[in-house]
Structures
1.
Amino acid sequence: MLIRNHFLVLTVLLSGFCGLGAAAQNQPADTSLAATQPAPARQQQLRRMLEHDCGSCHGLRLTGGLGPAIHAEAMQQLPQAAIAATIFHGRPGTPMPAWKSMISEAEADWLAAYMQRPSATKPALVSQDPRP
Ligand code: HEC
């Protein structure tokens, strides 16, 4: 009961903060994603990781570098589960590292879905956020 209420509050908060209200209605996938939403502070950490750690190989704007482009348009060509598995397990034999010591499988799922979301529905780059 408590968990369900918490989940509802989170969903409402996220819809408001991320301006997802309209987008979510067009994208049922976002609704199932909500079942594994990390806490807001953790989402911030994951976004920061995507920008800084992933960006070091995939480019600051994720348009490609040592690794291929992993921006939203590229990620929408791949199944969410495949992206999550690549993040969690890495790509053995390539420089793409496994992130399972840093994040949970649920967080990899969330990150994969987040990466697929159109840029317009996302907050500004983390590096532009004020530092705590
Ligand atoms: C040390 C460099 C490096 C880092 C750091 C890195 N990657 Fe990669 N990544 C790669 C390389 C190289 C590939 C291509 C692997 C291959 O050849 O299959 C790749 C592939 C991928 C793919 C598959 C793309 C596709 O088109 O199939 C995804 C998704 C991905 N990385 C996401 C991430 C995420 C998310 C992070 C941060 C959590 C990250 N990567 C951090 C080097 C890196």
2.
Amino acid sequence: MRILLVQPAPFEPGRLGLENVIWMSEPVALAQLAAMVPEHEVRILDMRLEPDLELNRVLLEFEPELVGTTSMTTDCYQAKAILEAAKGTLGEGCFTIVGGHHPTLMPEAFEQTCVDAICLGEGEETFAELVAHLAAGHPPRSLQAIAGLRFRNESSSWVTTSKRDQNRDLDSFPAPARHLIRRRPGDYFFMTAGPMASLSTSRGCSFDCNFCAIWEFYERKTRFLSANAICDRLERIEEKVVFFLDDNFLTNRRRLEQLCDEIERRKIRKYYATQGRTDFIADNPELMKRLRDAGLIMVLSGFESNEDDALAELLKRSTVEKNRRAAQIMQQLGIISTGIFMVRQDFDEADFDRLYAHINDLGIAIPLVSILTPLPGTQLYRQRQAELLTDDARLFDLLHSVLPTKLPRQRFYEKFAEQRDAVWPSVRKGTFPAIFHRPAFFMQTFFGIVRWLRKRAAYFRIVRDPQSHLRDELGKIDVDARLHPAPPAVADARRRLPVVRETA
Ligand code: B12
Ligand code: SF4
């Protein structure tokens, strides 16, 4: 079977968005699916890196019998546009499917005639069974036997099949078919570091922050690729820089220790970036040192707030003190800290200033300030759905406020746009120790620095301009609704559930 897997582009290239300047990762989900059907002819097309018309060219030239795409919430319209183009060009003979976080958590958004099936949850086995079914010539509207799908049946009604188990040992999945990803220098990067490969080494998280759906997507279970399997994959990766995509890589101490042992034993010399919680860093300085020595260069963590109450409200189950300690440890070790902070809709001007002062006090090398956003599938979404000003998926990018703000919107965005300049002392304080401790790494990123400075200049013009936020909202957020004051805090609605941690 000819299969085309397409990574959607952010809906308007060049506007606000992480991919533009901060983080562009390989289309790992698509490479993972491709690895499940090695007997078929599969192509991967990353539309974030291709001209718009490339999709039409490939559709006409390759004539795929199946087109699949993936979607976060913000990719929703572009993902549908891809499947629309496939149906429009190739007709009903081309089977279309979408999977990923948004289709799983909000499948109704994809129940359209250009979509034949929606993959719910983890995709590997569902996709392999679907391809085998279609390749054997079985009817495309009769998929009841394949678990983990929502599909259009013969009478064009949407039906859901039985639930797909998400228990399979991660080591038993084949490694992603990375050879199908076209990689040119500079395509995939984190800030100045690249060329960069991406590797997912665990699924799920044992915490339950109310703004995040990872733990719900993976049904409160966390599964890990073993240290051995990680190293087997690392040895096949040419890139010097590897991003471990796990949402919470810094957990399960035993696995991390085994990973350090195995990297040392096999003499794998690479640099690693990843995501992890600050409380783990604060509580495990020795292990962080070992990870640094094994090549860990950057950790992205959700610091979220300068107030313990706000952290408790988010069910973050950590403290400002842990954040502070983690920032110190990373400076001491020369690990670059990327810190995500959240601006809330009830912020007044002094709250913005206090947050920026706090970031400068911590000395985070790469501080990223986002806006509290109830993403579909989260507890926060369920709590605050009635207050949403829009359901336009493009604005759920954490850079626009989909809830009413206490400050007038213009002023809210003016204060938000101040961040780039306001937290510059933090960048200096956080970056110099890293350069001092890791000169070899920074020398290697020279071309990345040049490339990044060019992108940054274009990007900062947009980010620094509060009007760009307001322009993006035109026609999407009701002007009258912008004037509504923020409702009182929803503290009563807090849910406090016991946390189940891995036994390390
Ligand atoms: C890398 C990454 C990015 C990259 C690009 C992602 C990409 N699509 O290539 C970048 C940095 C650009 C990014 C940006 C953002 N991201 Co992001 N990102 C991730 C991350 C860490 C890894 C994605 C990944 O490759 N996972 C590994 C693969 C194997 O897993 P998977 O994608 O889930 O795929 C499996 C299934 O979903 C399914 N599947 C997926 N696609 C398909 C397609 C088909 C056809 C089928 C059958 C199955 C299928 O099968 C796969 C294998 O089991 C995830 C967290 C995570 N752990 O997944 C967050 C995540 C996807 N991001 C998220 C968010 C919120 C964002 C941002 C909005 C905000 C932010 N983080 O700052 C921005 C939006 C950017 C924009 N355009 O405005 C949320 C999405 C929530 C949602 N409701 O959509 C996640 C889940 C993080 C979280 N903790 O909530 N992100
Ligand atoms: S610790 Fe991170 S991945 Fe886990 S639930 Fe909280 S935000 Fe999500």
